[in-house]
Amino acid sequence: MKLRFTKMQGAGNDFVVLDATRQPLTLTPEQYRRLADRRFGVGADQILIVGPAPAPDVDFSYRIVNADGGEVEQCGNGARCFAKFVRDQGLSEKSAIRVSTHSGVIEPRLQPDGRVTVNMGAPVFEPARIPFDAAGLAAQPQGDHAQWPVEVAGQTVPLAVASMGNPHAVLRVDDVDRAPVHELGPKLESHTRFPRRVNVGFLQVVSRSQVRLRVYERGAGETLACGTGACAAVVLGIRLGWLDPWVEVETRGGRLGIEWQGAGHPVWMTGPAVTVFEGEIEI
Ligand SMILES: N[C@@H](CCC[C@H](N)C(=O)O)C(=O)O
């Protein structure tokens, strides 16, 4: 089967975007892995499948598949690329687009400067809803929230955890360039405390409004940026008393602006969305 695709990136987090608005598209996990493969396929951290609206109050649906072939709930950088994709392909003329994902409706808005702002919805902190197995762990109170002591690689690390629709664990470090991303990332990603695995963020606080972040993503390894990871890290940093409500996040692939006004409010993420090329692949 020949498949048309668009290669996109948001702050260096790269995607193969597929249009399934006119006809249903179901690939096998092996086919998704092949598309994501940087040597045998197109190459991507995630595959985004844009589909028709499943209900009258939304404009589209979109599904997200990690490079390992597993379908997941949410993707922040992908949401920005999704919005640019539907506009560029002439699928919508709106600049605020409501899209249904596996973890609810989000609303990307195209900005006049080409960046995209997304209402990512409200974060969730209850361990059971992340999901995070906190049984037997005493939370370490700090600020108005908690970090959890988790045993990994012979050490105990304090993790803050949240869901942005998908699960995140965040570890504060002094310097992201020297952080043990490849030592602790894979071990925490599939740690028994996280029954659905987890995205692992390494957060360096530069000031109350600026952080540096690296994320070892579930199902993809370290990416140049993770949008939901940036939302989770900032939200947890705010709850722990480290950060102000508006924070610039420096990733290895670009900068994201994250705003959160506190409990009950949605997280707003602003950043780039770029088309790299279009093509066709035999899959
Ligand atoms: N890169 C993404 C997140 C993609 C999904 C993630 N790896 C997961 O498994 O939850 C982003 O920008 O948010």
UniProtKB/TrEMBL annotation:
Pathway: Amino-acid biosynthesis; L-lysine biosynthesis via DAP pathway; DL-2,6-diaminopimelate from LL-2,6-diaminopimelate: step 1/1. The keyword Isomerase applies. GO terms for biological process: lysine biosynthetic process via diaminopimelate. Substrate binds at N13, Q46, N66, G76, N77, N166, N199, E217, R218, G227, T228. One of its GO terms (cellular component) is cytosol. It is found in: Cytoplasm. Its EC number is 5.1.1.7. The active site is at C75, C75 (proton donor), C226 (proton acceptor). Homodimer. Catalyzes the stereoinversion of LL-2,6-diaminopimelate (L,L-DAP) to meso-diaminopimelate (meso-DAP), a precursor of L-lysine and an essential component of the bacterial peptidoglycan. Belongs to the diaminopimelate epimerase family. This is Diaminopimelate epimerase. It comes from Caldimonas brevitalea.
